[in-house]
Amino acid sequence: PDEKEKIESVFTKILNESKDRLTTFGLMITIGYGEEVEDLKKITASIESAKRAIDDRILKGTGQIITFSKTKSGGIYNEDRFYELTKKFIKAVELVDTEEIKKIINTFKEELRHESICGSELKRLVREIGNTYYLTMRNNKIKIHDAFEEQTQLEKTIDNSYSMELLFQELVKHITLSLSKLAEDKTQKNLGQIRQAKIYIEENYMKNITLEDLGSYLGFNSSYFSSLFKKETGVSFVEYLSKIRIEKAKELLKEPGLRIQDVCLMVGYNDVKYFTKLFIRHTGLKPNEFRKIFA
Questions:
Q1: How confident is the model over 108-167, as pLDDT tens digits?
Q2: pLDDT of the residue at 186
């Protein structure tokens, strides 16, 4: 205890002296007090706990000594809830909907204000959102020329953020700036329209949708959009629609209470024989064979 008090006294002195010197430059120092260890071999663990204490400045404020505590370090954010948030975020990114992205991130920020989590967990969640943004771009074949530099800059920004407000403000700023760069590229505009088409198909696959319906929805001549869709996706509209319907059928066939003809109708086909033919073409199995294996 005496040694601990001496150390804390030194820290306090450093903190007080630095305040006067650094305030002039608009800087502030925060000291993280790590977990005590008896063996020098465990010093790495102590350093890591001190880093976690420093991360807590996001929640507790700067210009103070923050002591790491296992019992008061906060919990882990619910993964199911974060998964649902991620799904909404991915959809907004795919649509290049900047306003919706801002809304999702800001709503998440307000929700976290009522959660008992530590600073390290908060930074992890923000990193996950940032990583999800770049992964979504790659999955949709959207090339960001300076992706590595952007991600590196985001990581530095997260590490240097000293408040929750600043952390989320910088996240929104980073993503919107990245999207604005992409918006300047005309080819990306075409990809945005293709993503809208894909989402429209995924939301309406069970209906009798046609290329004309899709072209009308997006404001395009059907023949032009047919050419654009094939060019950007590598498959025709009909082929893509069939793929989505068969994927949905595979999910439904795992439900034992549904008949084959029920599944056929639920994914947009009226002819069971035609549905079976397409299902075999995509999976190599008849619907009933697929059910026996995977249901």
A1: 999 998 888 889 999 999 999 999 999 999 888 787 878 889 999 999 999 989 899 999
A2: 59
The position carrying tokens 């040694």 is 3
Contact 240/229 with Cβ under 8 angstroms?
Answer: yes
d(CA 39, CA 25): 39
Half-sphere exposure of 221 (CA within 13 A, CB side): 3
Mention every residue, 6+ apart, whose C-beta is less than 8 A from residue 34: 46, 47, 48, 49, 50, 51, 53, 68
Pairing of strands 65-67, 31-33: parallel
Angle between helices 237-252 and 186-204 (to 10 degrees): 40
Entry pTM: 0.59
DSSP letter for each residue of 117-170: B-HHHHHHHHHHHHHHHHHHHHHTT---TTHHHHHHHHHHHHHH--SHHHHHHH
Q: Tokens 């209906």 identify what position?
A: 207
Q: In this structure, what is the dihedral angle of CA atoms 110, 166, 80, 241, given to the nearest 10 degrees?
A: 100
Residue 185 in this model has a pLDDT that exceeds 70:
no
231 Cβ contact partners less than 8 Å away, ≥ 6 residues apart: none
Phi-psi sector, 63: left (phi>0), alpha (psi -120 to 50), beta: left
What is the rounded average pLDDT of the residues 255-271?
A: 94
Q: Does domain 188-294 have CATH number 3.30.200.20?
A: no
